[in-house]
Amino acid sequence: MTKTIEQKALKFIDENHLIEKGDKVLVALSGGADSVFLLHYLMKFRRRFGIKVAAFHLNHKLREKTATSDEKFCADFCSKKDVEYVSVAKDVKSSAKKLKVSIEEAGREIRYSELNKTAKKMGCTQIATAHNSSDNVETVLLNFVKGTGVKGLAGIPVRRNNIIRPILCLSSEEIRKYLKANKILFRVDESNLNSDYERNFLRNEIIPNLKQRLNPRLEEKISNTSKILSEINSFVDKHIQKISKEAIKTDGEELRINLQKISKVDKSLLSILLKTEIENKFDSELSSENIFSLLDLLVSQKGRSIHLKENIIVTKERGELVVRRSSASRIQKTSYKIKIGEKAIIDGKIISIGEVKRKMFKFSPDKSVEYISKDGLRNIFEIRKWKVGDKFQPIGMKGTKKISDFLSDEKTSSIQKKEHLVLTNAGEIVWVIGLRIDDGFKVTSETKKILKLTVTIK
To answer: Residue 177 and residue 2: Cα distance in Å, rounded?
Structure first.
């Protein structure tokens, strides 16, 4: 049995080209059965692969005594096998509270972050995690229940950048039989017995019943299906990338999707395109309901917006969808006072007003810099969002224009339009910030003192 399991893993690693001669592999070692097997296995076959092996342990500080015991076990295990070893302690519970995410999610983020840092310091070319086929089945079922696309049903990828899963072909049952046969000790994570966690509920209650009642080879069948779906996903990804280059642009913190260029894309492929691009840009996983809302938005009227998860807003503009994350730093006050010679930081913009000598004055096409006459102005200005009914006389024009109409003419997006700022003095609009000054405040040959107005992105 031992030989069969070893050969099965060897074949899997070779077929997927996971390890190359000369690699230094950093193993994520928790002390549990799977990671202990992985470290033992790679050490046993390191000469066959022509590699060096190191290990990393993260102390989550979730269960004080148990966590300390796990860390000591890993240190002792590596010492006996003469494996280069690094351990890091992080307060995962506090991080989860601070980031407002689950303990599981915080643990995952910290684990991969620390793994990458350690790999870089130790000169490791690959990071190996001990995900197995049982983990993959849990992932596929969890994604299926929650609603997902092809990517989610493809399960855990064999490789993601420098992260490899060398034992993804083995079940947890095979791994434990191997460890028992070879008298290799490992730690038991007591939290895995608690079915309050989603994954544990599947592992402890749902999957055993499915295997008993429907198919004892459930893991094998789902793994085979996820492999096929993974290949389909790779094929789809290539088409997505091609469409993305033509139809999607990143504009600062916004994602802009050209409606004309995606109009002929098949609906099912379009769903994957939108999901992939938004998730990649905003690092957030969208639900099937989010995707349905996006598809509905495509046939809605211009100016309509929808809210996805984690404050992601999508607005249909003239010829495009604009995706951005609403900021907690949006303007809370109705107005801000600013004196000549001062700067104000508002909504991610730095706005300044300063007096300059006439010889420093020159016209510029740069809309982020404007010059106005100081003559007759008060020392204190006000910065606020424009209001319905606001009017001004754009420089060079005869007569006044509503700010609302002016912003529309400037093709300002609906989202940006609502948040646009104006600079006023004594209640009169001096500058539609970043776009145009009022004609009544322009510099003329009779101007005695000049002010320079600037706006930059923080």
So the answer is: 8
